[in-house]
Amino acid sequence: MKVFSIVSMGMCFMVFMTGCGQKKPETYNLHQVRGVWLTNVDSNVLERPESLKEAVDFLYDHGFNTLFPVVWNQGYTLYPSTIMEKEFGIPIHPSFEGWDYLSYLTEYAHEKGLLVIPWFEYGFSSSYNAQGGHILRKNPHWAARDREGNLLTKNNFEWMNPYHPEVQNFIKSLLLEVIQQYDVDGIQGDDRLPANPIEGGYSEYTVFRYKQEHNGQEPPDNFRDPAWQRWRADILNAFAKEIYDTVKAINPNLLVSWAPNIYPWAYDEYLQDWPTWVKDGYCDLLVPQIYRYDFESYQKALATIHPDTLKLPKNHCAIVPGVLLNLGDYVIDNSFLREVITYNRKMGFEGEVFFFYEGLRKENNRTARLLKKEFYQ
User: Fold this and answer.
1) CA distance 175 to 115
2) Residue 313 has what pLDDT?
3) Alpha-carbon distance 148 to 121, whole Å?
């Protein structure tokens, strides 16, 4: 029988694993996270136990300590969900029927001493280029709306209304289902959780709520009106805090991680006021997505998320850059990767999280071999 617990010591976490009569302690400094996102898009690694086991062994051998496996995208859970079965009659993503990868991954990764923090990739987005998908077909009143009354869509992602209590409770229920059903080490939201495109906020429910709180006044037509932007962002802030407090009430050792875009772009486009999440202490690990294709752009973006730039406390939440390895045909070259990691260390960042696993394996494991040889010994 295995027991796995994390005891917080500032930003360090002591991990105790017991199994086969042995007890193995290891200390993780969250500032030194060496992480990777595992996806089911452009990757088949999660679909079979053999490939998943090989991936965990590979990551362990190359110095990684934290995995962020996707569990929610395209309106599906990638684990068998009683909530999704009850609400939509679809307990799991069709590609994962008959296979509970999260249970297998969590158990095997813990045997190797790696943390597992499930990643809720789609967040408040219901679908991609599918007019809301099965979620909004059943619950059309959950749809987010732009000022013309159209389904809120940005970059082909279609959105639920994060200001509606039913939508909030639905997403919250999935987060809690994972931490209560699996021996995971935390949960992670991203640039869609908690988030909403700034063009939204015009659903019937949201307008009603705004008018209740503003003496019957209609929300501004200008979706960039500063006070209107602030009102919506504050609702998302409150949801982030609610998630943090609820997770910690269930198990204070569980980590709450967020992976937003860089600031202030995240706030101006997706209403993600994540400096407040850090300042007010409802964040254990923050992984801003610094996805850039050249070193000069990376330097500028990294400066925007530095605790000194934003005057953020350094004891509430560890901040670790998210680095793009691979997207479509793009794979980072060795010289750029070396510049990025070296600059991270120069600026005081001790770890990073990479998007995504397949980028480590391209070209005969080129980037993984570089990381192990020069940085992740």
Assistant:
1) 17
2) 82
3) 27
Element (H, E) at 258: strand 255-258
Q: For residue 88, what are its two tokens?
A: 């939509």
* Residue linked to tokens 């009106």: 225
B/e letters for 341-362, b = 16+ CB within 10 Å, e = fewer, are beebeeeebebbbbbbbbbbbe
**pLDDT digits over 132-160, tens only?**
999 999 999 999 999 999 999 999 999 99
Residue closest to 142 by CA, chosen among 133, 218, 175, 173: 133
Q: List strands edge to edge, sheet with 289-290.
A: 115-116, 66-69, 34-38, 352-355, 322-324, 289-290
Q: In the chain, where are the structural domains located?
A: 33-374
Does the pTM surpass 0.90? The reply is yes
The pLDDT of residue 8:
40
Which DSSP category does 140 fall into?
A: G
Distance from C-alpha of 199 to C-alpha of 134, rounded to nearest angstrom: 23
In contact, 126 and 103? CB cutoff 8 Å: no
- Beta-strand (E) ranges in 288-374? 289-290, 318-319, 322-324, 326-327, 330-331, 352-355
Q: Which fold has domain 33-374?
A: TIM Barrel (3.20.20)
What residues contact residue 230 under an 8 Å CB cut-off, 6+ apart?
A: none
Band of pLDDT at residue 82, cut at 50, 70 and 90: very high
Return the half-sphere exposure (C-beta side, CA atoms, 13 A cut-off) of residue 277: 39
Q: At 349, list the tokens.
A: 């960042």
Residue position matching structure tokens 């990381």? 371
Q: Which residues lie below 8 Å from residue 290, measured CB to CB, with a gap of 6+?
A: 262, 298, 301, 302, 305, 321, 322, 323, 324
The pLDDT tens digits of the residues spanning 317-376 come to: 999 999 999 999 999 999 999 999 999 999 999 999 999 999 999 999 999 999 999 999
How large is the C-alpha radius of gyration of the chain?
20
Percentage of the chain beyond pLDDT 70 is: 93
Note whether 291 and 324 are within 8 A (CB): yes
Are 336 and 370 a contacting pair, CB within 8 Å? no
What's the mean per-residue pLDDT of the chain? 92
